[in-house]
Structures are given as C-alpha cells and as structure tokens.
C-alpha cells in the first residue's frame, strides 16, 4: 500500500508516518500544504491519501478541496480524511459525492492504533470508514424524516454501524447478534426506507445517505 500524507502539523505528520512505516506500510511522500500534496499525488500515484481537513493558507476547507481535486485527477485514489472535531458541512459534502474508498476520522482515533489501521485498510480495499462520533453527531442533527422515524432502535443501531462502513459480520460482532439477525434488520431497513433493489444504486449507501442528507437543512 503506497500512502501520501497531507498534514500541516509537523509533529502529527511525522508521528503518523512513523506509525505506518512501523506497520511495514509504504509512505511515499508527506506534504504540509495542499499544493505540495497534489504534486505528491501526481508524482507518486499512491493507493491512499491521508488528508487533514484544515490546511494552509486559511485553515478552513483547503484539505477537503485538495482531496476532492486529488480524486478528480486519480479516480481510484482512496482518501482518509482526518479532522480535529466533527465538521458537519464538510462531512456531508464529502460523503454526498459517494462513499467508495473514503474515510472520515477524528484525529483522536489515530491514537487508537488498531482502529486507525483497520479504517485505513478498509478504505484501501474500496470500503468506507466513518468515525462513530461523526455518525452519532450527524444523526443527532438530523431533520425529521417519516421513513427514518419508522426504524426501530435496533435498526437504527444497525444503520449507524453501516454508516461507519462495517460489513454484516462486523455489525453482528459489535451488537452481539447473529449474522442472520443483522441480515433481517437490514432487509427491514431497506423496506421501511422504500429502497428497492436496482442495478443503479447500492442500497447500503443509499440508506446511509438518507441520514446524511437529512442534516443539510440544519447546518
């Protein structure tokens, strides 16, 4: 796995680099500015980019914009975004463009090495990894949705874990239920959200985005 890191905090940038190299992962370049990051992506064609949300010069959304541009230039690039705290607008805007090969984690998660590495590998394999705190806060801010209100408490638990990017087996382990029970809950979620099977839509992604889209009016 070839990785580029974009983080303007030198200490954190070096710390993440050392952590990944200790796991025998190939950090091919690091960058402290969006321009340097995009140049590194162009030069090294990495598999994964780890990107801070807030970067110079204004420390607002430069990291997000750079990540979007990097994926435009290299569509197969997996991106794991790091943020100091939940930024609702950035999270929903980023995820609304599609969730494949995409992660959004709080920086505090880096200190939980196992969880951080699991998220990194999941994104690199083409999956999704959303920080549980991000999911929880986005759901808390959701506007009422008649279909979503029909979900049972357990179905909401399952959908929250789906939003983190977990598969059925991992959800079953987290909730201490069987795979069959998870499959049954997911079928019920799809039915209550009126998500019929189609060749054009991934129902898991569509269900998660229903939650995220319901935050748009309350930023």
UniProtKB/TrEMBL annotation:
<feature type="domain" description="HTH luxR-type">
    <location>
        <begin position="144"/>
        <end position="215"/>
    </location>
</feature>
<dbReference type="Pfam" id="PF00196">
    <property type="entry name" value="GerE"/>
</dbReference>
<dbReference type="GO" id="GO:0000160">
    <property type="term" value="P:phosphorelay signal transduction system"/>
</dbReference>
<dbReference type="InterPro" id="IPR039420">
    <property type="entry name" value="WalR-like"/>
</dbReference>
<dbReference type="Pfam" id="PF00072">
    <property type="entry name" value="Response_reg"/>
</dbReference>
<dbReference type="InterPro" id="IPR000792">
    <property type="entry name" value="Tscrpt_reg_LuxR_C"/>
</dbReference>
<dbReference type="InterPro" id="IPR058245">
    <property type="entry name" value="NreC/VraR/RcsB-like_REC"/>
</dbReference>
<dbReference type="InterPro" id="IPR011006">
    <property type="entry name" value="CheY-like_superfamily"/>
</dbReference>
<feature type="modified residue" description="4-aspartylphosphate">
    <location>
        <position position="52"/>
    </location>
</feature>
<feature type="domain" description="Response regulatory">
    <location>
        <begin position="2"/>
        <end position="122"/>
    </location>
</feature>
<dbReference type="GO" id="GO:0003677">
    <property type="term" value="F:DNA binding"/>
</dbReference>
<dbReference type="GO" id="GO:0006355">
    <property type="term" value="P:regulation of DNA-templated transcription"/>
</dbReference>
<keyword id="KW-0805">Transcription regulation</keyword>
<dbReference type="InterPro" id="IPR001789">
    <property type="entry name" value="Sig_transdc_resp-reg_receiver"/>
</dbReference>
<protein>
    <submittedName>
        <fullName>DNA-binding response regulator</fullName>
    </submittedName>
</protein>
<keyword id="KW-0597">Phosphoprotein</keyword>
<dbReference type="InterPro" id="IPR016032">
    <property type="entry name" value="Sig_transdc_resp-reg_C-effctor"/>
</dbReference>
<keyword id="KW-0804">Transcription</keyword>
<keyword id="KW-0238">DNA-binding</keyword>
């Amino acid at each position: 796995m070839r990785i580029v890191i974009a983080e303007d905090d030198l200490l954190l940038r070096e710390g993440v680099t050392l952590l990944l190299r200790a796991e025998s992962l190939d950090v091919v370049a690091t960058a402290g500015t969006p321009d340097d990051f995009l140049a590194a992506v162009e030069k090294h064609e990495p598999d994964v980019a780890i990107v801070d949300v807030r970067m110079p010069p204004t420390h607002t959304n430069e990291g997000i914009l750079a990540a979007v541009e990097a994926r435009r230039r290299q569509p197969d690039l997996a991106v794991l975004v790091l943020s100091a705290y939940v930024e609702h607008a950035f999270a929903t805007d980023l995820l609304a463009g599609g969730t494949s090969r995409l992660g959004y984690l709080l920086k505090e998660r880096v200190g939980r090495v196992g969880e951080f590495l699991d998220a990194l590998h999941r994104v690199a394999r083409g999956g999704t990894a959303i920080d549980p705190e991000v999911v929880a806060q986005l759901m808390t801010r959701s506007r009422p949705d008649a279909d979503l209100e029909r979900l049972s408490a357990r179905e909401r638990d399952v959908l929250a874990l789906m939003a983190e990017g977990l598969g059925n087996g991992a959800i079953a382990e987290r909730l201490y239920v069987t795979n069959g029970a998870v499959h049954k809950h997911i079928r019920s979620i799809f039915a209550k959200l009126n998500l019929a099977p189609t060749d054009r839509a991934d129902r898991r992604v569509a269900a998660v985005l229903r939650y995220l889209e319901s935050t748009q009016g309350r930023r």
